[in-house]
Amino acid sequence: MADAKTQIESLRKWVVEHKLRTVGCLWLSGITGSIAYNWSRPNMKTSVKIIHARLHAQALTLGALAGAALVEYYDRKAGAKAR
């Protein structure tokens, strides 16, 4: 259990230090997954597939940015309590 806690803590620390890289990687994986999903649907035009993939990736990015903002908020709040 302690090993899992340290892994989660190290992941959280990495995300705090690399917020934009995390959001960018999440966006890239989101658009890749969405394009792969949309390409398996044959009844759509290519332009519609690309638009849907972009919209899905934008929604995922907004969620990731909100998550990064929450992490930053709680880090600052925890830092203020530590002082």
TrEMBL record:
Species annotation: Cajanus cajan (Pigeon pea)
GO CC field: mitochondrion
Segments crossing the lipid bilayer: 20-39, 51-74
Matches recorded under PROSITE patterns: HIG1
Keywords for the protein's UniProt record, in alphabetical order: Membrane, Transmembrane, Transmembrane helix
Lineage: superkingdom: Eukaryota
Keyword Transmembrane helix: yes
Organism lineage string: Eukaryota, Viridiplantae, Streptophyta, Embryophyta, Tracheophyta
Localization (cell): Mitochondrion
GO biological process, any: mitochondrial respiratory chain complex IV assembly
InterPro entries registered for this protein in UniProt: Hypoxia_induced_domain, Rcf2
Name under which the protein is recorded: HIG1 domain-containing protein
Coiled-coil boundaries: none
Record-annotated HIG1 domain positions: 1-83
